[in-house]
Each structure stands twice: as structure tokens, then as C-alpha cells.
Design goal:
The protein is built from 7 helices and 12 strands. With 259 residues, it is an alpha/beta fold. The strands form 2 sheets. The protein has a 7-stranded mixed β-sheet with strand order 1-2-3-4-5-6-7. It has a 5-stranded mixed β-sheet with strand order 8-9-10-11-12, with no helix packed on it.
């Protein structure tokens, strides 16, 4: 069963408002699907891995906005965001060139793409970071950013190219954004983004000190001087949820090898 969260009159997402509705979910169930209604287009962002749920979301959005889906935007090609692609065989699919090569699908290959008329545009931008083909979607007139997996809220952030991701966070902080829809998890805001960026900057500084001391990774992972992840003060936040993934330790290992 899908959650439906109406952010504005033109934007509906499956991402819940808080952690309460997501703590017990399997990771693949936490992928967010989002719909943006423009006068000249009806856009879905990411389709998830479950065709049945993708059909349900598509039908619900088309009924609600009384028009057909015109575009599917994929923030990246990973299976949990794209396996239900067949549900959208009749619409324009927008993805990066690298993503299109992975999917081997008939799609619009692009680095940048703009949908909508002046003043109500939706911007697709390939940015890398989480994966080489990762992209985000920005809807400035509604102050909404769909971050893809470069920002997640139900687990600790993981990295493919951490420098790119942290630079991306700094650039997003300059956007006029009130609502951020993560690739996985519940809706967040710019304050959450800043907290995640700050945590990893503090982590990197501490890890550089550990590296100078010659500590091995097993010592690092249990060191009492490690900063606490920025969401651990929430009573229901558990790294990886009940199906513990160890993503936080993966991130620490990544940055320790990086520094």
C-alpha cells in the first residue's frame, strides 16, 4: 500500500512526512515516487521496483489531476528506482546518457532538461555523486527539490563519489527550497541537508586525525571520538531500520579510505 502526501496543490509524493511511517519498511519499499503537475505536463519522478505499485501511483495521479502522464524522470538507473519502467512505456522517459546505456531503453538522453513554461519550470540536472548518472529535479516555483539517492533520510548516507556529493549539498543550500524529497525516506528540509553535510565534514576531520595516528579501520569504527550521526537523537531512528544495513559504517569506511 502506498502513502500519498500532498505537498502542494501540484505536487504529490509517496514519501511520508516523518519517520513513524517508514521505520519498519524494507529498503526497496522506501523509494519515493513523486508527481508534479504543470499546465502542459504531468511528470512522475522515479518509478520504483514494483510495477503493481507504479501502476497504482500512475492511475491515482492521472485521476487526481485529470490528465495523462507525459514524462517519467529517473534520478538514476539503479534497479530499485527503475525496475517498473515498463509501466511508462508510452511516455517520454528522461535520464542521463549513462543511465540510458544501463537500462537499454528508448529514452530521452540528456544532462540537462527543462519541462514547463517560464515561471513554472521543472529542471532536471545530472550531477553524479551517488552514482555517475545521478540527477536531481528542482521545481523552484514550489520550492521543492527531488534529491534522488544523493540524499536519503531513513538510513545514513552512502557514497560513490563523496566529494561530488558534499559539493552538491553546498550548492543545494543556496537553492530557494523548503521541501526536499529524498531518494529513500521521509520528507525533509534544508535544515536536515545542512545537518548531514555538517556531520560528514566533522567526520572527515576526525578521521584525518585517526589516520595520522595509524589506526586501522576496526579501531576507527568503535572509537569513542567518532561524531554521532545527525539523526541518532530521534527515538525511532535506527541505522538501517530493523533490517540493519550497516550503511553508516560503510560511509565511515569510505571516508577513512578517502582521507
Amino acid at each position: 500500500m502506498l502513502n500519498y502526501n500532498q505537498i502542494t496543490s501540484n505536487v504529490i509524493t509517496t514519501a511520508p512526512r516523518n519517520i513513524d511511517d517508514i521505520a519498519d519498511m524494507d529498503p526497496v519499499e522506501t523509494v519515493t515516487l513523486t508527481c508534479i503537475n504543470l499546465p502542459e505536463a504531468l511528470i512522475i519522478i522515479d518509478c520504483g521496483a514494483n510495477p503493481e505499485k507504479a501502476i497504482q501511483f500512475r492511475d491515482k495521479m492521472e485521476d487526481h489531476f485529470e490528465k495523462r502522464i507525459s514524462h517519467l524522470i529517473l534520478t538514476h538507473w539503479h534497479w530499485d528506482h527503475s525496475d517498473a519502467l515498463s509501466v511508462f512505456h508510452d511516455v517520454m522517459v528522461v535520464i542521463s546518457k549513462k543511465g540510458a546505456e544501463k537500462l537499454k531503453a528508448d529514452v530521452q538522453v540528456t544532462k540537462e532538461f527543462v519541462i514547463g513554461s517560464r515561471g513554472s519550470e521543472v529542471f532536471f540536472q545530472v550531477c553524479g555523486g551517488h552514482s555517475p548518472d545521478s540527477a536531481y529535479v528542482y521545481y523552484p516555483s514550489e520550492q521543492i527539490l527531488c534529491a534522488g539517492d544523493n540524499l536519503i533520510s531513513c538510513y545514513a548516507q552512502t557514497f560513490s563519489n563523496g566529494k561530488v556529493t558534499l559539493d552538491l549539498y553546498r550548492s543545494w543550500e543556496l537553492f530557494d527550497v523548503k521541501t526536499i524529497i529524498p531518494g529513500h525516506g521521509f520528507i525533509v528540509d534544508k535544515h536536515y541537508l545542512i545537518n548531514v553535510r555538517t556531520y560528514f565534514e566533522e567526520l572527515i576531520a576526525v578521521l584525518k586525525g585517526f589516520k595520522s595516528q595509524g589506526l586501522d579501520i576496526s579501531q576507527v569504527l568503535k572509537h569513542t571520538d567518532l561524531p554521532e550521526y545527525c539523526y541518532k537523537d530521534h527515538s525511532k531512528w535506527e541505522e538501517g531500520g530493523k533490517r540493519h544495513t550497516g550503511w553508516l559504517n560503510m560511509g565511515i569506511k569510505y571516508w577513512y579510505s578517502y582521507v
